[in-house]
Amino acid sequence: MTDARRALCCLTLFAALASGCAGRQGFSIATGDRTFAPYAGPVQVTSGAVPADATEVGYVEAQGAALIENAMPEFVARVQELGGNFARLDQWSTRHEMVTRPVMQSYSCGSPRFPMTCTRTVMQTYELATVVLAGRAFRRGLGP
Length: 144
Prior knowledge:
144 residues; alpha+beta; five-stranded mixed β-sheet; 45% strand
């Protein structure tokens, strides 16, 4: 990938994150010199070497809740979206953050003679884990 294409990818990525689509489950950016129609077949994913017959088609990132199994289907779907049938997983991490959200609670607030149910809103804090997968999409089997 040329330095100009790499800079364009970084700017596109920054714009996507700054505009608020970071809450999406994943995204892909085409980086190759060729574009391909979306691919519907199986995708081979590795963290090892890229085969010599592979042509890079883009950068892919996906996220899911707590487990890599939750993020991998989105990662594969984004590779397929670029027309890729092979992917190299370059980076994976788990992000932890404390989240506070309002929760409605019901409780008995009447007397035995006049039973009532009341509700209240309390703030509940919990830890939220998110797995982030990042890598590159490739197309194999194009021939000479």
